[in-house]
Amino acid sequence: MRYEGSLYRPPSEARSYILQATLGCSWNHCTYCAMYREKTFRVRDLAETLADVEAAGRRFGPNVEKVFVADGDALVMDLDHWRPLLAACRRAFPRLRQISCYAMATNVLAKTDAELRTLREDGLDLLYIGPESGDDVTLKRLAKGSDFAAHAEAARRAKAAGMRLSAIFLLGAGGAGRSAEHALGSARLATAMDPEYLAALTLTVVPETPLAVLEDRGRFELPDVPALLGELRTFVAEARPTDAVFRTNHASNYLPLGGRLPRDRDRIVATLDAALSGDIPLRPEWARGL
Ligand code: SF4
């Protein structure tokens, strides 16, 4: 298996075989993101990627139950690439039960309904989409490339094709100035996307990103910790997914929480209230990660 540069995957894919079928992110403009800035986006040579799958099959075959296709927005690949890769994964890993990748809303919208269905039938069944915010002003400032409506439509089309969704929101993304709008808009978008999995991460301003430049110039300010917890409280209290597994277990968060929404909403809100009043300790700054 050959890997190039830094690899990123969701926490829930820690035990998955990571297939690096693309390098970098085809968009690479989000103002807060430094993940793939050193990489020029390209789809890896198909023969080379297929050889990786075959090698992984020989080495790990029956032990692989999940495959995560990297890098940043692998859904962007054409079906000419996806279909042989998905077929190779099914052959190489007899106990395979899930194939997933990161996707932008634009990646979903660029595919026809028939193409999405074909991908689902071939085995791609979980998309990780990170709108980060449901507030259109914030989305524009983040240069996310899609607004509320586009994310909602992408989710609708992916779900109609039979895919499951994991939606990721970013506490603090609206800055101190749009904290309330960001939290409420994000809850509304989580409701509209109605994913099976919901996660909240906390924004860290990474040096040398466009967001860091804005922060240096005094044009962006992270909300303080109580305000970040307040955003999370609004999000949990207002989001109305049908039945979503909810997690804030990412290392960036001050308070790891888990449960299902809406079933566990009251318990999670009560925990947040206890944290806001100082009765529950927060993860110390030194223990947080990106
Ligand atoms: S789409 Fe994802 S990987 Fe690409 S620039 Fe934005 S946050 Fe980074």
Structural features, described:
By secondary structure, this protein is an alpha/beta fold. It has one domain: Aldolase class I (TIM Barrel, Alpha-Beta Barrel). It is built from ten helices and ten strands. The protein has helices at 46-60, 79-92, 105-109, 113-122, 136-142, 148-160, 179-193, 210-216, 225-238, 265-276; strands at 17-20, 22-23, 42-43, 66-70, 98-103, 124-132, 164-171, 197-202, 244-247, 258-261. The strands form two sheets. An eight-stranded mixed beta sheet has the order 1-4-5-6-7-8-9-10. A two-stranded antiparallel ribbon has the order 2-3. Helix 2 links the parallel strand 4 (66-70) and strand 5 (98-103). Helix 2 (79-92) packs parallel to helix 4. It is globular, with a radius of gyration of 19 Å. 42% of the residues are buried. Bound molecules: iron/sulfur cluster. Iron/sulfur cluster (SF4) binds next to loops.
